[in-house]
Design brief:
The chain is mainly α. It is 78% helix and 0% strand.
């Protein structure tokens, strides 16, 4: 007579694999700890674990003077420079992306023209921001202006693509209604096109500014202005307390910008 096992009985009869899993995890942790302890720092002469300990202690005990200094070497000034690079880069990139967006929309221009423009935008997007940063630094020298040019160029690719998608989703029925009502071209743009595009364009710009703020922080590592260069110098000289102060300021800035941008995007989506 065939008997059916319950779910609990089936689980009880399965082989116990947790012991094998535990042994594998412990062996992996032991190997990782052994390999980390074998790392040596040429500058400090300590092991990798001691360097990691110094990083954690420095981040938890940031330099107060660096956080409170309002001069050019303080964290507030460096954060303000980073915000300026990200904001102006987004603004300039948006202005330059508008012609590419309209020329890449297949519902406005012929398809061959739209295809060529989209290929050009795709080519711009394939190059990483670090490469653009190094290129502009060779032309203009290190500084905030190189970061501005880098952010603008990187913004063109993404904004053009997003703007083009918004333009292609325009409701043609609204434009036909305005045309039937005798509206001129300016009226159709003012009352038919801009109300449809502005919420999408604004949301895209806010999102791109959020991305540029993080990229501007990283671009400082190659000398393109912002807070990245002081962070790199502090890490290279093993001043972990200064590293902690810079990272703390950067984290607070990103959280504030993220909160503001999420509120703005929510209002735009709700149409408030």
């Amino acid at each position: 007579m065939e008997t059916r096992l319950t779910y609990a009985e089936t689980l009880s009869k399965e082989p116990k694999r947790w012991i094998t899993t535990l042994v594998i995890v412990l062996a992996g942790l032991i190997l990782f700890s052994w390999s980390a302890s074998a790392l040596q720092s040429n500058s400090t002469g300590g092991s990798g674990l001691s360097v990691a300990k110094g990083i954690i202690i420095g981040i938890l005990h940031p330099t107060p003077s660096l956080l409170l200094t309002l001069g050019s070497g303080g964290v507030p000034y460096l954060l303000f420079e980073t915000i300026a690079i990200a904001f102006l880069g987004t603004l300039v990139g948006a202005v330059l992306a508008l012609p590419f967006a309209f020329l890449g929309a297949s519902n406005i221009v012929p398809r061959p023209v739209a295809l060529v423009v989209r290929l050009a935008v795709m080519a711009v997007r394939t190059i990483p921001a670090f490469v653009y940063g190094l290129m502009f630094i060779m032309v203009t020298g290190p500084g905030a202006f190189a970061g501005l040019l880098t952010m603008s160029t990187c913004s063109i690719g993404m904004l053009s693509k997003m703007f083009t998608e918004s333009i292609e989703e325009l409701d043609r029925g609204i434009l036909e209604s305005l045309d039937a009502a005798g509206c001129n071209t300016f009226d159709k743009i003012r009352y038919g096109i801009l109300p449809q595009l502005m919420p999408s364009f604004s949301s895209t710009l806010i999102y791109r500014f959020d991305m540029n703020l993080r990229d501007a922080s990283v671009l400082g590592l190659v000398g393109a202005g912002g807070i990245g260069a002081p962070l790199m110098f502090a890490m290279n000289s093993y001043r972990w307390n200064d590293v902690g102060a810079i990272l703390l300021g950067l984290i607070i800035l990103v959280l504030i910008v993220e909160w503001i941008s999420s509120k703005l995007r929510t209002k735009l989506m709700k149409g408030e």
